[in-house]
């Protein structure tokens, strides 16, 4: 089956799941997104691109930004990053303080909130404005100069910052945050509030499918080994407390966000982005996971 | 043995312990206190008062203030207080986030930091300025109009607020803090930074020895039952993670602070204050606990 | 009010609570006990004794036995006991493995199951048959040669031993159990399954009211200081995860069991036993706690 | 580079790591294994086989057996297995009771001890003797009729069973173990004590490289989807608390044992077994992980 037919088939097959689940409502700016959206985009290493549904509608990438923040930090700091954040699955909720307390303020991995906050703090230590740098890279990688921070979402996150503020203050009390707590939080929320479409996301993900060198960019951004590490982390820790289940069902490195987006990587072949706002109980897009599972089943592609 | 001789004997007996241990150094303002101070004061229900050593030197009462904040809250709010804070020993460090997370932001008791922060939040909800009210009551109860907040200490606490900020933000994320986090912290640090001498402290404690009615004040401040509850809490939760050991060795309701002060209550008879800045591993004054243990051994007084 | 009238008044006042709550049903042998029983006994240091209701009916003392096992261990081993068990409130369920794992197999105190299992192991190390010794002492202290182990209950406990077996094996893996797991469990269940009446229990408790020397026995069994330590432990850790609440409401050292019995101590004055099988959510006799609260309210007696 | 040269190069490169680390000594039978052993075997889907070093010496496969027990359970029970054990990384030590208590006796995955004990219990429920069945399958898959249980090791495990007994009794108390605790433990220890060489292990692993159908066996043993699930689990949970690090460094599904063996899978291509008894701090063979890392680096093979 060719990719266009494949996308058609998936699009129809997932309709019963679109709008099922619960749109993230912890901040008002997200709660008002219509639940019945669905978009998907494939971006291949050879330059081909296939989209379906609402693939050109920008949405809040939320935790998918954790991949890009990490990529930027690896580009700037190399393996230094791993001095202050681990690489292991957490076995706890994405915003839990328990393991953080038992492990003296060292987050388990960069894809739980605490870990992404430390990565943000690293970036603040080596850049005047990490958000501008991140946007610059995303705009180049996607050829979309319109990628921006949705300030309404960022302000809403800031308003409801208590849980993340608790994490950041706690880590600062352990010496694992160096900038001011407010600055770390503001920057972190800016990254979470970046608005991108499925088309944008799949294009940006090509960096990881290409093992650090996107065919869309002139320069290598990560070493081959760093890119593989990010892929490995996405597989073991990319979908909150459902990483094992995602590996079972989809069998690809993936990173989800509560905005309903998921980025998945097929090394050497393509990058896939899918978006549908209604979430399952673990916080992953219900129709999105379903679409990816069908994709790997129908194509027989899986890293396993 | 009469009380003056008793104090003399204790004073000499504890000398080997004075200065042993470690002065609290988590904030600079406390770290500079000389370790070799020792004062003790007995304040009896019948009006007699006996002091020895540095009993008239003001020190930072720190967590002993948690007793006074609770007393003020019970006076203002009655049993409503217990809607948002428990009465059980915590079995965890005084500033742990673990139990707080497992129990959805309801602190175990008002004598761990999280609990005192909730009590402070209650006070902010029913008073324009709880610190002024607290000072007013302490000044009346001690006949010492000079009792004040040591602003240098309060500022130093504020500078190093991260752990307490983590606790407060976390509880706010659970809906158990209503005022702004900064206002709660500022007020809490003011209470911790109140400077009082042993003489002051013992006088203030008479309220609890008198079951809610201090012979030094015109009005009943707590009901008999409320006062007993505070005494019960001091016994089960008053000395951090060493409440059981304190009950074993001293056998009295007591509340300690990292400034080196301890307030102990002998119901119907007297209130005792002791101060020596060097702390044992659990954060209680080493010479202070020793002095209280000798007092109860020599007099045979114990609630057990 | 004289004690007989007092008991009458309490007896009538608690009737609405008798049978309320839930009879322990984790083993069949306990589940069949009628819920509507209520007995109470006061045993004074001066020899007077007052009883009401089902005060002469034997029941399964369950966790109240933890006090007697500890008393026997202190008599045989002195302060050595504290090498392998702590003295602090646990802040966790009576049969939790969590704290035990974080603290390397050292139980928080001798009144949670893990702690009593270690005390039992100590006894097995210094006695051929601790159950026979315990019964001998209880028979002397109560003048009741009929006190015995209810073998049906003990067998039922053994049948349902998995949770306690988990605790014991875990501690053995940490090196904190020396005898065989099965022998420790068997002996522990024998102690839990001792059947005594309220009259018996109050008589046996006189040892603690008398600070180690019961007026009913010829010899001193504990030092004054050991007896006070047991009383302190009963107050801080005697009623499962409701020790703070019990201290609030009753204000006396007490130890409860899931058989519905509670032993409470008024130092220097008397020992009180109460029994009613229906339990509140924390595992304490609902009518029993109510009766003790009324007793201390009506008499004004409280250690606070 | 051809495979024989590759193995030669790896063999020499890892020599500095051979014997570094610590041979498992929790049971005497394992502690006496010489630390300086090293063997490696490649078994390709096309029938080729390459070995080096001590590749024909049998060793105790220990936790690698958890893969085979799971495979057998999936063959017999299908997806029913997942009713009583999860698929998520644990974030805790392999023998921790903490998460088990918080999650009511449902183990996080089948590769921590608790999970493998539940799998064993499942097998006991659908087979007269799971050990005989497991050996039968292993003998067929490896063409080695000599594969057996090392009874000395099994007895030694039984002798030191306390931690595993605690896990099993705990789960039984939660209703998640149906057979007798002793029977589950005996069977579990038999599986851990199976002795196989690298050559055997790699041959057996071909089932997973072949997605459920080993070229060495006549029948399909798992569905394609089941085999991928096992591979996914090996990647996310296969190397104790170092799964993330293993995914980073090696980038293949792998399962290690404290006997020093590791089985790794390259889907569709080959199965690799490596053995060297000295372990790193996380319990994985130090030279073994090093050898696998070099293998994937030199060949450029990785699932990422």
TrEMBL record, chains A, B, C, D:
<dbReference type="InterPro" id="IPR015868">
    <property type="entry name" value="Glutaminase"/>
</dbReference>
<dbReference type="Pfam" id="PF04960">
    <property type="entry name" value="Glutaminase"/>
</dbReference>
<dbReference type="GO" id="GO:0004359">
    <property type="term" value="F:glutaminase activity"/>
</dbReference>
<keyword id="KW-0007">Acetylation</keyword>
<feature type="binding site">
    <location>
        <position position="113"/>
    </location>
    <ligand>
        <name>substrate</name>
    </ligand>
</feature>
<feature type="binding site">
    <location>
        <position position="258"/>
    </location>
    <ligand>
        <name>substrate</name>
    </ligand>
</feature>
<feature type="binding site">
    <location>
        <position position="240"/>
    </location>
    <ligand>
        <name>substrate</name>
    </ligand>
</feature>
<protein>
    <recommendedName>
        <fullName>Glutaminase</fullName>
        <ecNumber>3.5.1.2</ecNumber>
    </recommendedName>
</protein>
<comment type="subunit">
    <text>Homotetramer.</text>
</comment>
<keyword id="KW-0378">Hydrolase</keyword>
<feature type="binding site">
    <location>
        <position position="164"/>
    </location>
    <ligand>
        <name>substrate</name>
    </ligand>
</feature>
<feature type="binding site">
    <location>
        <position position="157"/>
    </location>
    <ligand>
        <name>substrate</name>
    </ligand>
</feature>
<feature type="binding site">
    <location>
        <position position="188"/>
    </location>
    <ligand>
        <name>substrate</name>
    </ligand>
</feature>
<feature type="binding site">
    <location>
        <position position="63"/>
    </location>
    <ligand>
        <name>substrate</name>
    </ligand>
</feature>
<comment type="similarity">
    <text>Belongs to the glutaminase family.</text>
</comment>
<dbReference type="InterPro" id="IPR012338">
    <property type="entry name" value="Beta-lactam/transpept-like"/>
</dbReference>
């Amino acid at each position: 089956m060719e990719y266009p037919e494949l996308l058609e088939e998936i699009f129809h097959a997932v309709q019963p799941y679109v709008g099922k689940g619960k749109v993230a409502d912890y901040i008002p700016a997200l709660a008002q997104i219509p639940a019945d959206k669905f978009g998907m985009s494939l971006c291949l290493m050879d330059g081909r691109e296939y989209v379906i549904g609402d693939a050109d509608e920008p949405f809040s990438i939320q935790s998918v930004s954790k991949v890009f923040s990490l990529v930027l930090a690896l580009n700037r700091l190399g393996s230094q990053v791993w001095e202050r954040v681990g690489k292991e699955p957490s076995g706890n909720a994405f915003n839990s303080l328990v393991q953080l307390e038992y492990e003296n303020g060292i987050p388990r991995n960069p894809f739980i909130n605490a870990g992404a906050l430390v990565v943000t703090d690293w970036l603040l230590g080596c850049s005047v404005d990490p958000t501008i740098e991140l946007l610059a890279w995303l705009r180049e990688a996607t050829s979309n100069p319109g990628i921006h921070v949705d300030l309404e979402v960022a302000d809403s996150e800031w308003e409801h910052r208590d849980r993340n503020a608790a994490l950041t203050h706690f880590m600062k009390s352990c010496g694992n945050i160096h900038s001011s707590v407010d600055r770390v939080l503001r920057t972190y929320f800016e990254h979470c509030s970046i608005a991108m479409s499925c088309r944008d996301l799949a294009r940006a993900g090509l960096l990881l499918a290409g093992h650090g060198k996107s065919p869309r960019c002139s320069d290598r951004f990560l070493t081959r080994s760093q890119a593989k590490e990010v892929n490995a982390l996405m597989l073991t820790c990319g979908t909150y407390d459902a990483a094992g289940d995602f590996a079972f069902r989809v069998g690809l490195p993936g990173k989800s966000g509560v905005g309903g987006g998921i980025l998945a990587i097929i090394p050497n072949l393509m990058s896939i982005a899918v978006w549908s706002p209604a979430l399952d109980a673990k916080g992953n897009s219900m129709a999105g996971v379903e679409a990816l599972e069908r994709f790997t089943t129908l194509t027989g592609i899986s890293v396993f």
